[in-house]
Design brief:
By secondary structure, the protein is α/β, with parallel strands linked by helices. The chain contains nine helices and 39 strands. The longest helix is centred in the middle third of the chain and has 21 residues. The structure holds uridine-diphosphate-N-acetylglucosamine and calcium ion. Calcium ion (CA) binds next to loops. The site of calcium ion (CA) has 4 residues, from loops.
């Protein structure tokens, strides 16, 4: 049964400290927007509805997350976190609300579940996650009297004594969806250092009735708020480390984790070895026992077991079992490399299938092509797939041999087991097992240099 809970994510703020034209919640963290991280964690609680409050950069945020079953609420001008929640009033119906800032991306599901449990057991009106920091910086301070939470004071409004408090507000709230809540939000004042309606001011309102408490979450890193690009880099480092630790525990060797970048959705099989300077991004899947790197950039690509990829770029590519890619290969979208094939040393493949055991070892371009098993593509061979207007296909049969610097002018077919002589420009189909030569005959002029009087 789904939780009788609605989640409201506050994502309308200006994000001034980012100094960016891009809305803060769209800045990427390990390749995914900040808001995506928050949304996934929120969705893992199966809330009745997921409401996102947008304002600054609203169109861009909506566009980035359309077709996701989210309810968007426009705050208009962002006048503070209290005003942001108030603007979601009509969009929520569940008896309990979980309010999350869009800029706290690392919070784990367990922390949210713990807060909800804490809230429920305490029979509270309002609860929130707090954390202790040795340097509490700009976070809101949690003021306690006799151990009881009485209010939150924002850093900009705090006295020196209050600034010394190390327990701070994470910005993650659990609230009862009652008329009192909305009444209290409407009663907020913006008479403070920032001229904003602070959600944090609700604490003092409900603390008087003893219906407020904070759950101190021991892992403060989990609750890091991203306000500027220094925070963003810290969050990136922490998340990257989490991902790498998970993979290493699952049996992946990562040589120098400080120099390896892996996105959250990437899968890596057991006994794969990842060398420094490797980026595995998007929906990349790496099979068991692969060696990836040094120097590899893979996005949305699939590499089967036992393959090796080094000093190469793969985008939307497929690499079969035990194939060897690199050094310096570029596999572009639609590149499909068969098992045990070899592609490297400045070879580019785009929208082309290379069969099992194909060799394209040096300086070739294979685009819009079908290359049969065990064909050999010589150094400098090119499929001339583009006539300036349209793309055309090249078919190369199994076991064919394409000589160095051959230009295959598409559309064209090279038959099974056929040979194309080096330097040929092939414009007509070559039958199976034939040899095609297209070049001027070599002429020898004996003693030419001597007659010229040079020697
Ligand atoms: C807020 C809290 C602070 C807490 C910190 C934790 C308030 C007043 N302060 O401060 O106590 O320690 O988070 O990270 O709540 N937003 C809107 N509409 C607005 C303003 C903000 O949607 O009008 C959104 C922002 O996009 C952001 C979140 O609310 O995702 C928090 O706003 P931000 O301005 O970053 O608040 P902080 O100063 O970090
Ligand atoms: Ca913030």
């Amino acid at each position: 049964m789904p939780n009788p809970l609605d989640v409201v994510i506050l994502a309308a703020g200006k994000g001034t400290r980012m100094r960016s034209r891009i809305p803060k919640v769209l800045h990427p963290l390990t390749g995914l927007p900040l808001l995506e991280h928050v949304l996934r964690t929120a969705a893992s609680l199966s809330p009745a509805s997921l409401v996102v409050v947008v304002g600054h950069g609203a169109d861009a945020v909506r566009a980035a997350f359309r077709d996701r079953g989210l309810v968007f609420v426009d705050q208009g001008e962002p006048l503070g976190t209290g005003h942001a929640l108030l603007s979601a009033r009509e969009a929520v119906a569940a008896p309990r609300l979980l309010v999350l800032p869009g800029d706290v991306p690392l919070v784990p599901q367990e922390a949210l579940a713990a807060l909800i449990d804490f809230h429920e057991r305490g029979g509270l009106m309002l609860s929130f996650l707090s954390m202790e920091l040795s340097d509490p910086g700009r976070y809101g301070r949690v003021v306690r009297e006799d151990g009881r939470v009485v209010r939150i004071v924002e850093a900009k409004d705090a006295s020196p004594e209050e600034l010394a408090i190390r327990e701070v507000n994470s910005g993650i709230w659990c609230l009862e969806n009652t008329p009192e809540l909305w009444g209290a939000l409407m009663g907020l004042s913006a008479r403070n250092a920032q001229g904003e309606y602070y959600l944090t001011d609700l604490v003092a309102v409900f603390a008087q009735e003893g219906r407020v408490d904070a759950l101190l979450w021991p892992a403060s890193d989990d609750l890091l708020g991203v306000n500027d690009r220094v925070d963003l880099a810290r969050a990136e480092a922490m998340l990257r480390e989490r991902i790498l630790h998970r993979l290493m525990r699952e049996g992946v060797t990562v040589v120098n984790p400080a120099a390896v970048y892996i996105s959250p959705d990437v899968e890596v099989g057991q006994d794969a070895v990842i060398y420094p300077g490797t980026h595995l991004l998007g929906r990349t899947v790496v099979g068991e026992g692969c060696e990836i790197g040094p120097g590899a950039y893979l996005i949305d690509s699939q590499v089967e077991a036992g393959a090796r990829v080094w000093f190469s770029v793969l985008e939307g590519a497929y690499v079969g079992k035990e194939a060897k890619i690199g050094p310096f290969a570029h596999l572009r979208p639609g590149a499909h490399i068969g098992a045990r094939a070899r592609v490297g040393n400045f070879v580019e493949v785009k929208n082309a299938t290379l069969g099992e055991g194909v060799k394209a070892g040096h300086l070739a371009y294979i685009g819009d092509a079908e290359v049969g098993a065990h064909a050999n593509i010589g150094a400098g061979a090119i499929t001339c797939n583009y006539d300036g207007v349209r793309k055309h296909r090249t078919e190369i049969g199994p076991g064919a041999f394409i000589g160095s610097n051959a230009a295959l002018v598409a559309p064209v077919r090279i038959g099974e087991g056929a040979y194309v002589g080096a330097g040929s420009v092939i414009t007509e189909d070559v039958p199976p097992y034939a040899l095609a030569l297209e070049r001027g005959e070599q002429r020898i002029k004996p003693e030419w240099a001597k007659k010229r009087g040079e020697r």
